[in-house]
TrEMBL record:
PANTHER family named in the record: ANTITOXIN MQSA, MERR FAMILY BACTERIAL REGULATORY PROTEIN
Species, as recorded: Acetobacter thailandicus
InterPro entries hit by this protein: Cro/C1-type_HTH (IPR001387), HTH-type_reg/antitoxin (IPR052359), Lambda_DNA-bd_dom_sf (IPR010982)
Gene3D superfamilies for this protein: lambda repressor-like DNA-binding domains
Protein name: Helix-turn-helix domain-containing protein
Keyword Phosphoprotein tagged: no
Superkingdom field: Bacteria
UniProt KW keywords: DNA-binding, Transcription, Transcription regulation
Length: 99
């Protein structure tokens, strides 16, 4: 039977693993990178202006403009949300209406 770790041992092991991942000596257990996306195409399919798209989905208008002009790339979480907006807009709307 495996020995049970106490919380401080678990935290220390987690910190050591995080350092190893950051240094590239340990592979993360799971890693996912959303694909590159075309923000302008996604926004245009919604029929919204940059300002209204940003306001509806919680982005800054400047970020949407920069993404569309390829000056910046959306972070992982933003890309994930943008993919949901593109592929499952009704689901996103249901969530937003509930807030």
């Amino acid at each position: 039977m495996a020995e049970k770790m106490n919380i401080s041992d678990e935290l220390l092991a987690s910190m050591e693993q995080a350092v190893g991942i950051a240094e590239g000596t340990v592979n993360p257990g799971r890693s996912w990178m959303p694909p590159k996306i075309n923000v302008a195409d996604i926004r245009k399919r919604t029929g919204l202006s940059q300002v209204h798209f940003a306001a509806r989905y919680g982005f800054s208008a400047a970020a949407v403009r920069d993404w569309e002009q390829k000056r910046r790339t959306p972070e992982k979480a933003a890309r994930t949300l943008l993919m949901l907006i593109d592929q499952e807009p009704q689901a996103v709307e249901r969530v937003l209406v509930g807030t």
